[in-house]
Design goal:
Chain lengths: ~200, ~200
């Protein structure tokens, strides 16, 4: 056993080791427990703010508290969450949190806002891992690409890229990302029309 | 060794990234922009200083045979603290760094300094060592992130430099490869060449 010079090390006896590890883990967990309680509120608040921000972006002006009314629908092994927005009690739009697994790097999560008749009001990207400079042009702050969906009703606007004989102009050099984006929007639209409308 | 030397070795002679090649996983993973590199560097610096401090205080109380698990628990606690605080107060940066924050636990730089330095030196020396090493790591990550951001996105710390031609939609045509994984290796390689050259001249 290596022993360092000029240092009164505690002996590696069984009792010493058990006691040391107990003390180290006990103090560590106590400190973390305390900090967890301390940061629980702010973490929940920042998550809620992000959600509210996404909802507000994609539906028309409303006066209800965003996220106060939600319902869920299980589909394709995941859940779509619906956030209806009302003004003076009247439904003005529904934000749908939707997803696809067909992105160039897998999972993409979007928030799609529908008007009561199914017209797309706006779309915001919540999560994605697409290639920077190519697929990430689906983000509003990177390019204006996703604006082409706004005001279109999927009933007469085919949610497929032009290569697949749809009406969506794909992002240059990112057909797979564009297809995935359409897939996610289409999933939200179908779920919304099939019973997501309340 | 004077304390100044102790401090500056982490920045130049024993720079974690450019000379010792420690902690390369987060180095290559998060440095797609200067701000990400800086954020990651500062988070690691905090963990490094705090774990060096605690390890140097408790070093004589920890039996040799369980020192590595004890160090890891100490390091993991500080990493979790960084994670919680970041998530609560700077969620935007937390989202960018994401998975790489918990991975600071296994950053061999942090455990390496605890084991090789803090467990053998005084509290003051250990803190100075942690600050120096952490600063060197932060500087390296920021430089690497800056180079990749300038070449790959045409911006630095988010400011547009207008150095690339733009396409018909107004998006700059940049060298995208530099914000992707291969660009990390290319940029790091050239930076290491540069640092080696400077170090050789000074030696």
């Amino acid at each position: 056993m290596e022993r360092r010079l000029n240092m009164a090390k505690k002996e590696s006896s069984f009792l010493n080791m058990v006691l040391t590890l107990f003390m180290v883990t006990f103090i560590a967990s106590a400190a973390l427990g305390y900090l967890y309680e301390l940061t629980k509120g702010p973490i929940a608040a920042s998550k809620l703010a992000k959600l509210n921000n996404a909802i507000t972006q994609v539906v028309p002006e409303f006066d209800t508290i965003p996220g106060s009314e939600i319902y869920k629908m299980g589909i394709d092994g995941d859940t779509l969450v619906f956030y209806p927005a009302r003004k003076n009690g009247e439904l003005v739009g529904t934000a749908v949190s939707t997803f696809t697994n067909n992105g160039f790097s897998g999972y993409i999560k979007l928030m799609v806002g529908f008007l009561p008749d199914g017209t797309i009001h706006n779309i915001s990207v919540l999560e994605h891992e697409e290639t920077p400079g190519l697929g990430d042009k689906m983000q509003k702050n990177k390019s204006k690409w996703s604006i082409q969906f706004n005001g279109k009703n999927p009933a007469d606007f085919k949610l497929k890229v032009t290569k697949d004989r749809g009406d969506v102009d794909a992002i240059t050099a990112s057909t797979i990302s564009s297809r995935a984006f359409c897939d996610a929007v289409d999933r939200a639209y179908k779920a919304y029309m099939e019973g997501g409308k309340k | 060794m004077s304390q100044w030397k102790n401090f500056s070795k982490g920045i130049f002679k024993e720079n974690a990234v450019f000379v010792l090649f420690l902690g390369l996983c987060p180095t290559l993973g998060v440095t797609s922009s200067a701000i990400n590199g800086l954020g990651m560097g500062l988070a690691t610096t905090f963990v490094l200083v705090m774990s060096n401090l605690v390890v140097s205080i408790v070093k004589s109380q920890i039996p040799d045979k369980v020192r590595i698990p004890s160090f890891i628990v100490i390091i993991a606690s500080f990493v979790t603290m960084v994670e919680l605080v970041m998530q609560a107060y700077i969620p935007a940066l937390f989202e960018q760094l994401g998975l790489f924050i918990p991975l600071i636990v296994v950053n061999c730089l942090v455990l390496g300094r605890s084991e090789a330095f803090a467990s053998k030196n005084s509290v003051l020396s250990s803190i100075i060592d942690g600050v120096g090493m952490g600063l060197g790591f932060s500087i390296a990550l920021t430089i690497l992130g800056g180079v990749r951001e300038i070449l790959g996105s045409g911006t630095i710390f988010g400011f547009n430099l207008h150095m690339f031609p733009v396409d018909e939609e107004g998006n700059p045509i940049t060298m995208i490869v530099f914000v992707l994984a291969p660009g990390a290796f290319i940029a790091l390689g050239y930076l290491i060449v540069l640092i080696n050259k400077i170090n050789k001249k000074n030696a």
